[in-house]
Amino acid sequence: MRRIARTVRLTSSVAVAGVLLAGCGLLGSDKNGEVSDMDMQRAAERADQILYATVGEIKPEIEWVHRATTTGSCDVTRYWTVMTVISEQRRGNFLGVVERFWKANDYRIEMVNPSQDVPTIIATSPEGFGTRVKFGYKGQAFFEVTSPCVENSKVAGPKRVANGRAYEGEIPTPNVRSAFWSAVTPVPDPAPSP
Fold it and tell me: In 10 A of CB 18, how many CB atoms?
């Protein structure tokens, strides 16, 4: 049983790496493997648009924060952390909304991992951006968008302010409760202390 679980994890890891690295040379690329008329800054802005549009489809609204931006030799990746804790009972609905939105916008679904522990969906946008949503510890979701190979340039941070709360100078932790997403029955906020 352990061998099967290890094989599934290894296969999933290889598939994720393949999808994320396969961005270079995908749709709309020139002879050098770069996406025509796009530099890293414009790719980062497009990644932001993909994230804003995807999260905008999730109702009721969730809270999220920008996690990081990384650059490779010819690609850029934006990472977001969902600060709303998603209960185990609601994760399927959450992922279903994301998958339906991506399919409706002609994304190619590369992998769906229905794992109880770390359910994940990986897709590729029509212009070759690798997209991923996955769940981590205690129902925290993470989004990631990686560009195909583009012209090298400086990359500025996202322009839009995140709607979630995080602690200054620390890695965001799930600290926001949504009555809908956090539980089957609403979780009341603690009473303020006198």
Answer: 13
